[in-house]
Design brief:
The chain is an alpha/beta fold. It has 13 helices and 18 strands. The strands form 4 sheets. Strands 6-5-13-14-15-12-16 form a 7-stranded mixed beta sheet, sandwiched between helices. A 6-stranded mixed beta sheet has the order 7-2-1-11-18-17, with helices on one face. It has a 3-stranded antiparallel beta sheet with strand order 8-9-10. Strand 13 and strand 14 form a beta hairpin. The radius of gyration is 22 Å and the shape is globular. The structure holds flavin-adenine dinucleotide. The site of flavin-adenine dinucleotide has 36 residues, from helix 1, strand 12, strand 16 and helix 12.
Length: 424
């Protein structure tokens, strides 16, 4: 075997994307250091833990495509798919969510004509969307299906829960169709921090050095700068948001990356996350708003995130791209929804956290830029790559972060393509 020096790789950001990139780089034989600005790893996937409760940062559901990538990285996840007492609210009334043609036929929420049109929608999901849908907005797609009134609002609610986006006039229909076909999500036992911990353990097992409280100030090909410290390297993966990546790269950021960071529309949500000693009511386990862009779900019914008898409930409001949030009003609205489904919840409260506008996804995949095809590729310049939910043409949310992390690791690793693994 030919001897050559071990690739020194630095990963900036210790969220799931950064940790996945570190695992991939180390698996390819690189000497890897992860630099995380915060005192803890995990980024947006971190959870709060106390009194036996694990509370994610807002409602988090693991999509099967993301789980497959985690499995490939050696991370196994358990937890169940929400499957019972799933409801939606339309015109002030609560109905079971139809999950297929039979339950759609028996639904009391829609007229026969609406059911026929929704059946066409159901038939179009679960298979790869035609290429033409990438540049169509969700609104145009639903127009094409002839969906109006309550059936239209129900379909839009389905798109919101599947994509987190409340932007039917902008979101690419291909993205919506793909996500709607991935309904078998899992609520994760032990909270999403368990995914972070497992990735970190896997990375450390492969010899990765992980540094927290290590905020990177700037990056250039061949070096990463922290306060009072410069680290030489052969490869860098910036697993941070687009604006941060551009500011760290400074003059090395290509114009196309700058333009993308400037124009990207962030996807945000208000959320109320509560831990209760007991559930006032056993059902419903999920309520989806069709009249209003709301979500409420008892995550502890499907994942081990609460002690015996206790419950964790996540409520959310999907924000439109330019929506201004009145934090007090948003909180009141979510608390009122909770009171409606779990009357007297305050008497059982252990812990509550409210966030008026959390960043769920850095860049809405818009129809005008071809959906996910409009996102930047992982490789920025030789030896420098980016990763995150805004990078690459694969998937959404965590799946996009993980898929782009693997692409970034591959793009900066000279040995991964054709060379044998380095001998030290
Ligand atoms: C309310 C909410 C609900 C969500 N629901 C879902 C869901 O249901 N399903 C799903 O798949 N995804 C969901 N997500 C998204 C999911 O959490 C993210 O996709 C995932 O955590 C992104 O990981 P990441 O590593 O790309 O980015 P992040 O988690 O944002 O990690 C980036 C890291 O980089 C660090 N960093 C930044 N700048 C620097 C610097 N200069 N130096 C060093 N470190 C730096 C940050 O501190 C952070 O730790 C949700 C997110 C939110 C907020």
């Amino acid at each position: 075997m030919r001897r050559r020096h071990m690739t020194r790789a630095i990963v900036i950001g210790g969220g799931p994307a950064g940790l996945a990139a570190a695992v991939a780089l180390a698996s390819e034989g690189a000497s890897v250091t992860v630099l995380e600005a915060d005192r803890e790893l995990g980024g947006r996937a971190r959870h709060w833990e106390g009194d036996g409760y694990r509370i994610n940062l807002g409602p988090h559901a693991l999509y099967p495509q993301a789980e497959r990538i985690l499995n490939g990285l050696g991370v196994k996840v358990t937890g169940r798919t929400p499957s019972q007492d799933l409801t939606f609210e339309l015109d002030g009334r609560t109905h079971p969510i139809p999950s297929g043609p039979l339950s759609l036929l028996s639904s009391g929420a829609f007229s026969l004509a609406e059911k026929m049109r929704l059946a066409r929608l159901f038939a179009s999901i679960g298979k790869p969307p035609p290429a033409s849908l990438a540049t169509q907005t969700v609104a145009e797609w639903l127009d094409g299906l002839g969906l109006t009134g309550g059936a239209r609002r129900f379909a839009e609610a389905g798109v919101r829960i599947a994509t987190y986006a409340n932007a039917p006039e902008r979101l690419s229909a291909a993205v919506a169709v793909r996500q709607l076909g991935s309904a078998q999500v899992r609520y994760v036992d032990g909270g999403w921090g368990g995914i972070v911990d497992a990735l970190a353990r896997r990375a450390e097992g492969l010899g990765v050095t992980i540094r927290t409280r290590a905020k990177v100030r700037s990056v250039e090909p061949g070096a990463v700068h922290l306060e009072g410290e410069a680290l030489a390297c052969d490869a860098v993966v910036l697993a941070v948001g687009p604006k941060r990546a551009v500011s760290l790269l400074g003059a090395h950021a290509p114009a196309s990356l700058r333009a993308f960071a400037e124009e990207a529309a962030p996807v945000r949500a208000s959320h109320l996350d509560v831990a209760l000693r007991a559930l006032p009511r056993a059902r419903p386990s999920l309520v989806l708003g069709a009249d209003r862009p709301l979500y409420a779900s008892v995550h502890s019914s499907y994942a081990e995130v609460a002690p015996e008898g206790g419950a964790v409930i996540h409520l959310g409001r999907y924000l439109a791209p330019d929506e201004r949030v009145d934090p007090a009003a948003a909180r009141r609205e979510l608390e009122a929804v909770l009171e409606q489904i779990q009357p007297g919840w305050r008497g059982h409260l252990v812990h509550a956290r409210f966030a008026p506008a959390s960043l769920v996804m850095h860049a809405l995949p818009e129809a005008r830029s071809g959906g996910v095809a409009g996102r930047p590729a992982a490789l920025v310049t030789p030896g420098v790559a980016v990763a995150g939910d805004w990078v690459g043409d694969t998937g959404l949310l965590l799946e996009a972060s993980l898929a782009s992390a693997l692409a970034a690791a591959h793009a900066v690793m000279p040995l991964s393509v054709s060379e044998p693994r380095a001998a030290v």
